[in-house]
Amino acid sequence: xxxxxxISRPSRPSTxxxxxxxxxxPIEVDLDACLIRVGGREVSLALLEFRLLVYLMKGQGRVRxxxxxxxxVWSYPVDSATRTIExxxxxxxxxxxxxxxxxxxxxxxxxxxxxxxx
Length: 118
Description:
This protein is α+β, with helices and mostly antiparallel strands. The protein has 4 helices and 7 strands, in the order αββββαβααββ. The strands form 2 sheets. The protein has a 4-stranded antiparallel sheet with strand order 1-2-3-4, covered by helices on one side. The longest helix has 13 residues, at 84-96.
């Protein structure tokens, strides 16, 4: 009688080695899946809020000026006079709950993600 050979299933890629992650305190960002978790709880963000959070987290501890934020997150001309940054930071902080305090305002310059929250 012929012996049955087991059907091999394709192996799943390892999520630990291929997943690009950012973390700051309780905030975790899965860049590949575009997922945000705060303290293990998934948080839904609008696209610009997501881009803003990622940009701040990639530069933890460094001040991001209004001009840098407009150029890298919004692709606006640097001379744009707009309050959109403040509006989006306020919404982002609210959605992050207590973890929103990790985004610091640097008066008259811009914002930074605290790096001591690791």
